[in-house]
Amino acid sequence: MDILTEEMATLIVKETAKRTKTNINIMNFNGVIIASFDKSRIGTLHEGAIEVLKQEKTVVINQKDSLHFKGTQAGINLPIIFQDNIVGVIGITGNPNQITHVADLVKMSTELLLYQNYFTYELEGQIRSQELFIEELLKSESSKSFIQYLMKQLNINLLTYRK
């Protein structure tokens, strides 16, 4: 499962930009913008994101720095972390001194949404495995190996009694 999809990034950008009144960019783990309020930037390389990925920490870009980093504007770029791994970068355009308070909230909201999406995906998979397990048990000629596989997936331990 790709944890940071373009669809999710687009939703995050749309909802965040609406509330913060600032441009938001989300870059993948290669530094390419996958979602932006400024649609013309999608698909372009963001060197600020590359710096975040290299340094594994937040990178602040002021107006002067933006001249040296291709594809950047003044703002704050933060790593998006999921299960202790950087899965992307979120960039918030604006005067870094004025958007610092918003940047951490946007990062936190993004990471919480990723976790929520992941756990929903996992729960749906668990429910589907349970359904398959029950269906297989009810078959007149069920597959022993498939039942064993599903038992392992679901961490089920059935006892077998023999006389």
TrEMBL record:
Alphabetical list of InterPro entries matching this protein: Diacid_rec
Ranges where the Putative sugar diacid recognition domain occurs: 4-137
Domain of life: Bacteria
Protein name in the entry: Transcriptional regulator
Organism: Staphylococcus cohnii
